[in-house]
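[09:14] KT: can someone run the structure on this one? pasting the chain below
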Amino acid sequence: MTKGCFFLFLLWICTFSITAQKKENIIKYKKAQEKIEQEIQFLNDEISRIAKSQKNLYDKAIMLSKQISLYEQYLSSINNDILLISEQIHEKDKMIFHLEQNIEIFRIKLKALIKVIYLLRSPTSRLAFLFGSTSLQMAYNKYLYMNHIRRKIIKLIEQLRDRMTILQKEKEHLLTLQDEKFNTQKKLLASIEKYQQLLQEQSKLRTEAKRKEKELRRQLEIKKNEVEKLNKKIQKLIAASETSSYGSKNSPTPSTQKDPSITSKSEKKNSSFINQRGSLPWPVNGTIIGYFGEQSHPLLEDIHYKNNGIDILCKNNSIVRAVFEGIATQVVPLENDNFLVIIRHEDYLTVYTQLTEVFVEAGNSVSADQPIGKITKKDNAVVHFEIWHEKTPLNPLDWLKK
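[09:31] RB: done, structure tokens below
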């Protein structure tokens, strides 16, 4: 193998491995984009549904903020796509350049050999070449040389044909990548336009909020009191679950259990709740519109509130499931025909609120992914979910699957 061929082979191997990795990254970005697109479409439907409602100004602002956040992620993902495709195009250009150089070298070599054969094309020329030898050995060597030249020409033609085929495929792939980049850039421009429209809508919504600020603040005060009331109730119920006959982490299983052996297995597994960090299933399918911790109001920037969990906007009639096995220590009715469910997992507790139906009772053992309730709301179907380590609230996003 010549030095040029060896270099070309190494370049192809390196390019292939790098390109394969980039393709995996592009596939990963595509999947993330599809998920974001689904969430955006879901929020579009929800915003369209509440567009004419004056009392849902806050809900629309929350969903709009979430949509803007999703579009920012979406734009970032598309930009990454374009960068990866651009890198692939650059590598493909480099590969084609070296292929063309290699082909040119083959052509020069072939041209030189063909020139030799051309000079010896006639029988007279060949005989003159042979009989011009000073010895029989020299004549034999010349004969071998002519045959070697013919074989080398045939080999060079085959190698040249192979490289021409590879070059054609690489050029076709390059065209495909260039088309993909062009389409992705179009997608980016369309997404930027939509993103700018959302920012304009948000600006209009804030202007509208200023006109209705007095009424909006009154509604927020009511909502704030409701949230504080619910938080106090949850904390009280969590404290109560420690002393209840079936809620205590050291207490025996409730009499509703049929087989005591099941309880011991359950308790053994529940102790591994801490090992589920980052891998717990989601309690309901949907999109997050409320995050853990200190949050700013989407319309009135001077207003802040604390969220001990996350709020998941979901479809009407969605089933709510336990994220891990444990014991339902509290099943409590709330205002507006809603329910709250608390499940203990040894030192940890999970809280599910705003359920319109419940499928478990206090004292029941539940398994991971078991349906525990349902949310049936045409307007604002939101499940509030919390995770506690005894009396300390934790960020659920650190525990749920990414």
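[09:33] KT: thanks! The first strand starts at residue 287 and ends at 290.
[09:34] RB: yep, looked fine to me
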